[in-house]
Write a structure and sequence with these properties.
Blueprint: H1 2-19, E1 23-29, H2 35-38, E2 63-74, E3 78-88, H3 92-105, E4 107-108, E5 119-127, E6 130-137, E7 142-149
Antiparallel strand pairs: 1-2, 2-3, 3-7, 4-5, 5-6, 6-7
Length: about 180
């Protein structure tokens, strides 16, 4: 009888862990040397080989002020990825070239952000659990590059001021886009 109780308890506990979507593994990247490696992670669903064309191809020659990538393997939901980079461009010509590249491939999304001192451009906002955008401080020549895939707001590890207004947990909005950008 006691043995049956233990087996039943273990099965119930295992089911609870499986159904609650507990994390089984995560890896944090804090070094610029990891930049190229992170684009090979399965959670990056940007549709390109290697680095997303929205982000700088290389960062080893840039003034990276802040860098964080967190890769979660979630059961049963799949992967979750957050990439945050703050780069200050010392050379005005390089900054202008990067700014022009961003504007040419992204849409202006200032209306989705509550940061008056930054310009916002996005490749996607909330499409298929994915958000990829840049916030630009023209005066300081700083660009914040942000990529989020399947990450609830409570798990984001950078300043929430840099998130789109109304950013919500994707789990609560699985069947709809966060923003209608069409």
């Amino acid at each position: 009888m006691f043995k049956k109780y233990i087996v039943t308890s273990v099965l119930i506990i295992n089911m609870v862990f499986i159904l609650t979507g507990c994390y089984i593994a995560f890896k944090d990247y804090y070094h610029e040397e990891d930049y190229r490696e992170i684009w090979e992670l399965t959670g990056f669903r940007h549709g390109y080989e290697g680095v997303s064309p929205f982000f700088p191809e290389r960062i080893d020659n840039l003034e990276v002020k802040d860098f964080l990538c967190r890769y979660d393997q979630q059961i049963p939901l799949g992967e979750g990825v957050q990439l945050f980079m703050k780069i200050q461009y010392i050379d005005k010509m390089i900054f202008d070239k990067e700014y022009d590249k961003i504007r040419s491939m992204a849409f202006d999304c200032n209306d989705f952000f509550e940061v008056d001192d930054l310009s916002a451009y996005a490749v996607r906002l909330g499409e298929e659990w994915s958000t990829e955008y840049a916030l630009i401080d023209e005066e300081q020549q700083i660009i914040y590059y942000i990529f989020l895939y399947s990450v609830p707001k409570s798990q984001i590890r950078f300043n929430h001021r840099l998130l789109p207004a109304g950013y919500e947990d994707y789990w609560d909005n699985y069947t709809k886009k966060i923003y209608d950008t069409e």
